[in-house]
UniProtKB/TrEMBL annotation:
Homodimer. GO terms for molecular function: glutamine-fructose-6-phosphate transaminase (isomerizing) activity. This is Glutamine--fructose-6-phosphate aminotransferase [isomerizing]. Residues 38-177, 210-352 form the SIS domain. The active site is at 357 (for fru-6p isomerization activity). It is found in: Cytoplasm. Catalyzes the first step in hexosamine metabolism, converting fructose-6P into glucosamine-6P using glutamine as a nitrogen source. It comes from Tropicimonas omnivorans. It catalyses: D-fructose 6-phosphate + L-glutamine = D-glucosamine 6-phosphate + L-glutamate. Its EC number is 2.6.1.16. Keywords: Aminotransferase, Cytoplasm, Glutamine amidotransferase, Repeat, Transferase. The chain holds residues 244 to 605 of 605 of the full protein.
């Protein structure tokens, strides 16, 4: 049942090239994104509201960057447990999107109920198409990840991201922000994603070597800018969830507003930084860490490794990828790092202490 893997989590990490490919095939044509009935027309909304818990919430957070940048559509992200009790006012022409692997998370479902009659449309991005959250939605957008057994969400996260990315493309096109040619180019780039993810999955042994060293530490920091910031949060969550190493994710620019006080040689700092337009800013942050004796694990692309690899404790190099797709690719080493650190520590990878796969109580 684990397909020759030691843990479900390893199997689910390895499945990502194939399930991401399935997800893309379900929504992407050569020229356009096709949604299941009854469809969505983003020209009808002035704002997207994304609500979820845990890893699904970080997928929403990445999507905020995409909706804003690709479609010029204001997007707000909320944690379901905060949203539901805050009971916020909701402006007209709002599309609410609920993201949940299980489709049964109590807080996310309660947030959805709060939105009934208050938003123009309720969409859900779920892995379980017969779930309560799916049943409560006007439109259901399945992620096609297949059953996810490991408590730590891996393939569901990247498939959620893939669906949300395609929604942002559709939004760009519906709102006249993305031309037909740009759409075709972006769909072409998307079709190369499974191959790139496959490459990243294939680097598992190298991540394992680094993870054995990370397994020795008590605390770790994850830093990222732009859409890599939510990935930093996800990296920290994944590591603490299964290896019980205390980890925090920060926006790189926040480093000097507090967390830099933690830096010394005992705290590895994982920097997620493809060589995009924000790269030089990330390099400055890395220099601040190194100047204080901090150890950097840089996760970047070949150009980034050439520019900034010197002085880093370790460098993991991923293939070059279009900036907007980087969050999906960079999820892989982050998952592998947590997985191998947990295996090195001998924790229960698939069933970490105190956690449930589906959180159906508040
Ligand atoms: O089923 P859901 O996607 O609604 O679950 C949300 C969170 O409970 C979930 O993502 C959790 O954070 C994972 N265990 C993280 O790996």
């Amino acid at each position: 049942e684990k397909g020759g893997h030691r843990h479900f989590m390893a199997k689910e990490i390895a499945e990502q090239p194939s399930v991401i490919g399935d997800t893309i095939r379900h929504y992407a044509g050569t020229r356009e994104i096709v949604l299941p009935e009854p469809g969505l027309d983003f020209s009808q909304y002035d704002r997207v509201l994304l609500v979820a818990c845990g890893t699904a919430n970080y997928a929403c957070f990445v999507a905020k960057y995409w909706f804003e940048r690709i479609a010029g559509l204001p997007a707000e992200v909320d944690i379901a447990s905060e949203f539901r009790y805050r009971e916020p006012p909701i402006p007209a022409r709002t599309l609410a999107i609920f993201v949940s692997q299980s489709g049964e998370t109590a807080d996310t479902l309660a947030a959805l109920r709060y939105c009934e009659g208050r938003v123009d449309r309720i969409a859900s991005v779920v892995n379980v198409a017969e779930s309560s959250i799916a049943r409560g939605s006007d439109i259901v957008l399945p992620i096609f990840a297949g059953a996810e057994i490991g408590v730590a969400s891996t393939k569901a996260f990247t498939c959620q991201l893939t669906v949300l990315h395609m929604l942002a493309l559709k939004a760009g096109s519906d709102r006249g922000v993305l031309s037909g040619t740009e759409m075709e180019t972006r769909l072409g780039l998307l079709s190369s994603l499974p191959g790139l993810v496959n490459h990243a999955v294939g680097e598992s042994a190298e991540v394992e070597r680094i993870a054995r060293e990370v397994a020795e530490v008590e605390d770790a920091l994850f830093l990222g800018r732009g859409a890599m910031y939510p990935l930093a949060l996800e990296g920290a969550l994944k590591l603490k969830e299964i290896s019980y190493i205390h980890a925090e994710g920060y926006a790189s620019g926040e480093l000097k507003h507090g967390p830099i006080a933690l830096i010394d040689q005992t705290v590895p700092v994982v920097v997620l930084a493809p060589s995009d337009e924000l790269f030089d800013k990330s390099v400055s942050n890395m220099q601040e860490v190194m100047a204080r004796g901090g150890r950097i694990l840089l996760i970047t692309d070949p150009a980034g490794a050439r520019k900034a690899g010197d002085g880093c404790w370790r460098v993991l190099t991923l293939p070059e990828i279009a900036a907007d797709l980087a969050p999906i690719l960079y999820a892989i080493p982050v998952q592998l790092l947590a997985y191998h650190a947990a295996v090195a520590k001998g924790t229960d990878v698939d069933q970490p202490r105190n956690l449930a796969k589906s959180v159906t109580v508040e």
